[in-house]
Amino acid sequence: MRVLIVGVDGYIGWSLAMYLAKRGHRVSGIDNGTRRIRVEEGGSGSAIPLPSMEHRQFAFNEANPDLELSVGRLDVVHYGDLCRYLQDFDPQAVVHLGEIPSAPYSMRGYNHIATNYENNVIGTLSLLHAMHLECPNAALVKLGTMGTYGTPNVPIPEGWFDCTIDGHTDRLMFPHKPSSWYHATKCCDSTNVEYACRLWGLAATDIHQGVVYGTRTDEMLSDELRTRFDFDSDFGTAINRFVAQAVIESEITPYGIGGQRRGFIALRDSIQCLTLAIENQGHNGEYRVFNQFEEVYQLDELAALVSKTAKEFGLNPVVRHVDNPRMEAESHFYEPAHKHLLDLGYKPTTDMQQQLRHMIEDLMPHRDRILKYKEAISPSVTWR
Amino acid sequence: MRVLIVGVDGYIGWSLAMYLAKRGHRVSGIDNGTRRIRVEEGGSGSAIPLPSMEHRQFAFNEANPDLELSVGRLDVVHYGDLCRYLQDFDPQAVVHLGEIPSAPYSMRGYNHIATNYENNVIGTLSLLHAMHLECPNAALVKLGTMGTYGTPNVPIPEGWFDCTIDGHTDRLMFPHKPSSWYHATKCCDSTNVEYACRLWGLAATDIHQGVVYGTRTDEMLSDELRTRFDFDSDFGTAINRFVAQAVIESEITPYGIGGQRRGFIALRDSIQCLTLAIENQGHNGEYRVFNQFEEVYQLDELAALVSKTAKEFGLNPVVRHVDNPRMEAESHFYEPAHKHLLDLGYKPTTDMQQQLRHMIEDLMPHRDRILKYKEAISPSVTWR
Q: Alpha helix (H) ranges present in A201-337?
């Protein structure tokens, strides 16, 4: 299948590109290259050193001369360029991972809010319209976030629910409730992608993903093929930050009382799930929502688990709860459904403890880099 | 009260500005001036001739030397300018009417979608952030649309509903379901305004307004003080278009079978309701939704009523159903609540029939202008 990956230079993007190419798909990736810049602007960098986008494509092609994987620089907000690109490559599936994925980054001030909306919401609108014109039968797999739902006091369905009012019933989108401007962009995206399905007969899967963690997939056979690993307070996810802290024996710092419950998934299983969505497309006009996570954990449990696992490696990090820079419930009901991917055959290939061990192994050689950017782990923006 | 009106050069904006000034409020209005340009670009113009924005402020000030009403050119997407303006005027209430209000306009292609999002969604984000910094205690009254809800098979509440799933209950935002990219911008706005209330303690009223119609408010005492009247297929609302068609004895053209049910409200009562929202502010952090309409009508009933009323004036327009350019249900359940404004004291001051008579009286002198732009009444863009 010809698969386009938007955001191929990202944490998931590059991992997915290699995985899909190995499965025999013809993979073309585009990226605007801004993730590296934004992390650097924030005074941090990937813990795992990265070759350039072009260099690692070259490394992959050299190691796999029979497979197809190409990457190029293109920003989806450049609508005309995007249309020409789609016309040329004629993808059968488009995976959209090209959004700015950080809540704290979006809370830095008006310019960051506007940048988030232009990159995420208008970028997605550009992609939707361009697909409608140039490849209307290609399926879209769009990365969203479980954060779209917030933490309601009711079980969270997968996108749709049966709404009953005064004896009348309709199947409606489950309401959105963002807790950052970044999350709000994902809510708007979901509204827009669902409408594009009704309007243009697009087949789309909106992946409401939990928190991803990990350093490794089976395709990362050489240093040049590793994916990025962010641990700064803007772009590092909770577990990735905790493990980076453990590796440098810094304090592990869950925010607030740490009772926040979230769904988590390992990078390698995120790749597996995205592939299931790509290879099992919905029908034209269908808007599917997959809640993509493996298990729900409480943040303070995870901090303790990271600390405990680190001890196996002779590390001795302590857990210290810090003031929560975010505005969020720190103790709440949380019961999200996640059945659709299991129905398609998703089988977790790993468990949290095993992944934590791999992460520590993979990060230990790069302690110096984490130490270099250590200051960037502490939150530098508050919600209030 | 110091009231800022964003979009003061519009149909509702100018009418509201005069009404509030007459009630003793200190009114300052801003506008980016694009409505006039967009209507002209579409080959049409206001049926009622308009002086410039500055000229009509001058006319109002001359007739009312003791009242305060000033207007200025400013686009809310220019964040820095907007902040300085808010700092200077220090409003106690901000009424945001400054959005592009047309579904067909938004369906013309990618550039129009992007323009809609930049003007509406990013403009509102700019306003929210600027208010947070410069006038955090000012209440926001934001114009939305009943179209945010679509036409679900359940009664439509006012913004919030009690959601019960598996025995758990939470009060959640009622789900959005847009039927054009314009409507989608309003859905995104609602998501963002609600979040700004939680995040920054903003007091906001999201007005989900039905279809507005009419030519007249009590403040329009001279020709120079009239508000604009659009009848083109992009910016003219259903009744306004029908009456314009009747006045030139053209066919009255409801779309499709005409069974679409919508809430309607006369311009003078829209002004009354907006004023109730402004003068009865919610508390800080509260996100209120008012469904603002007087009565639900079916479009083919309205077409017949316009035709019948026109006959009183010796006009003889016939009703002809035309292909529906939109993608919408043409026969559906529709039961929206509209209680909040009645609770605040809203009393309809007019009925549809009386308004239709006034409209025909007001438009007859401008038959030539309607004839001049007659071609623009027919839809020139389809949803499919």
A: 238-247, 267-279, 299-312
C-alpha closest to that of B369 among B211, B254, B223, B230: B230
Inter-helix orientation angle B53-63/B11-22, to 10° = 20
Q: CA-nearest residue of chain A to B152?
A: A170
Nearest CA in chain A to B382: A199
The beta-carbon neighbor of A187 closest among B155, B174, B191 is B191
3-state helix, strand, coil in chain B (%, to 5): 40, 20, 40
Please say if the pLDDT value at position B149 is more than 90.
yes
Q: What is the DSSP string of A55-119?
A: HHHHHHHHH-TTS-EEEEE--TT-HHHHHHHHHHH--SEEEE--S---HHHHTS-HHHHHHHIII
Per-residue CA distances from B141 to B98, B274, B281 (Å): 12, 8, 9
Residue in B19, B105, B186, B309 annotated catalytic: B186
CB atoms within 10 A of CB B101: 26
How does pLDDT run across B225-273, given as a tens digit for each residue? 999 999 999 999 999 999 999 999 999 999 999 999 999 999 999 999 9
Angle at CA of residue A211, ends A207 and A215, nearest 5°:
110
A vs B: CB pairs below 8 A: 132
Q: Which stretches of chain A drop beneath a pLDDT of 50?
A: none
Shortest distance between the Cα of A170 and any Cα of chain B, in A, equals: 5
Kindly report the pTM of this predicted structure. Answer: 0.98
Q: What is the pLDDT of residues B98-108, one digit of tens each?
A: 999 999 999 99
pLDDT in tens, A341-353: 999 999 999 889 9
Cβ pair A114:B130 closer than 8 A: no
Containing H/E element for A337?
none
B121, A117 contact by CB (below 8 A): yes
Structural domains of chain B in order of their starting residue, each with its CATH number: 2-377 (3.40.50.720)
Q: What is the pLDDT of residue B350?
A: 84
